Amino acid sequence: MKPETAIVEIFRKYKVYTERYLNDAADKTIILVNGSLATTASFAQTVRYLQPRFNVILYDQPYAGQSRPHNRHDQPIRKEDEAEILLELIEHFCADHVLSFSWGGAATLLALAQRPRRIEKAVINSFAARINEPMRDYLESGLNFLQACDRCNVGCLVNNTIGKHLPSLFKRFNYRHVSSLAEHEYMQLHFHIREVLTQDTQCYVACAEAIDIPLLFVNGEWDEYTTARDARLFADHVRRCQFRTIKNAGHFLDMEHKAAWHDTQQALLGFLQPVSRLAKPKHARLWTADTAAQTA
């Protein structure tokens, strides 16, 4: 099913490309928040199990993907700006749930700390409460390559670190995508990494303390960059939270193999829709690397 697409203007400052997958039988809407350098295409696997149960909203940040041609890129966008964009899109699409991936979790926590009235539950995938040594090494290596606009090494770095457990087809797509970005996108990520490395990540913990809706943190067992153990540090700060570890999976969870896709699906749907409300979808498309690459 093809999505409805639209450009949504935010604060008369940003124009955001959006995709809306409608489901006439769904009574809830979920909005998905990308990680760094990602676009709506990165959620191809996730949409396959969410769309049979929800209306699903995807969007590109103003500097990325199909939002990129509609915006000026004269200054970087802060995480606080991304949080405000998310809050506006939540209201625009009347979203009930939020699901974030990787560094999309930073803007998501900042937004949820403002207690948007519509949101009932949120899922935070592949995010942790601190910057551990493997993540710090990854980010510091990335700074030099990004500043030099070294496309080859940026692509290789992603595949050799957080993407190490991806199938080879996904790695090829990742490399093509990451190594062909516009220079301003590299500068945006460089700005973001410098923020992450110089600011106290306890700000995300502080945000979590202000959140009053149920949260689910999902991490891969093999993810050494945002570990399940580091995610569980949120337990002392979030009033209502749950944690799931996806066995034999790394940072990219449902993109890595069929079993991880299935287990991530079960974790998310079990949290967002309690068993008593689950109904078998009419059409459930299975995880396939070939199909995902064609979609992306």
Automatic annotation (TrEMBL):
Xref: SUPFAM superfamilies? alpha/beta-Hydrolases
Its taxonomic placement starts with: Bacteria, Pseudomonadati, Pseudomonadota, Gammaproteobacteria, Pseudomonadales
Q: A Pfam family this protein belongs to? A: Abhydrolase_1
Any idea what this protein is called? Alpha/beta hydrolase
Q: Where is the AB hydrolase-1 domain?
A: 29-257
Which Gene3D superfamilies does this one have? alpha/beta hydrolase
Task: Tell me a Gene Ontology molecular-function term this record carries.
Answer: hydrolase activity
Q: Does the keyword Cell membrane apply?
A: no
**PANTHER family tied to this protein:** HYDROLASE ALPHA/BETA FOLD FAMILY, PIMELOYL-[ACYL-CARRIER PROTEIN] METHYL ESTER ESTERASE
On the tree of life, the source organism's domain of life is Bacteria
Keyword vocabulary terms for this entry: Hydrolase
